Amino acid sequence: MKIVPTSIPGCYRIQLEHFRDARGHFTSVLDLEPLREVNPEFKVARVNRSLTQARGAIRGLHYQRPPKAEDKIVQCLAGRIFDVCADLREGSPTRHRWVGFELSPENEELLWLPQGCAHGFQTLTEGCLVEYFCAEIYSPADEFGARWNDPALGIEWPLPCTQTSEKDAAWPMLAR
Question: What distance in Å separates the CA atoms of residue 176 and residue 162, rounded to the nearest whole number?
């Protein structure tokens, strides 16, 4: 796997490498050794999957606050998504900035989001299956988020939002 930095410190694109032969190919999706070269504390505490049926739907922006803050690695197993990392870390030089990348089974890229950054995605096709490798147990008391259309972030979603949850629509707006 190749770990490529983005413009947000601690956020990386992960590009998978294939070992090919006459049968097809083999790919290591999650190898902890190269990940720990970047972050020695990285671990996987749980793996989640979400299925989103509607094109244009937005999930997020979600993160967990300390003491249950977590790194998260995201991949798209079916369909295509526009995946976003929004920096919400106090004191960060890139606070309130975001990066977004298309993830799909075809490009087989993953996005690694660091603690303190919120995650969200928009479905570019119907029937998107997304998998999350999370570095901490889920803690409802520490869950928080930012609104997908918060002007303080100014995320440029590729499509109009066709659907989001009541919870995601109700996150407080960020102070500028």
Answer: 27
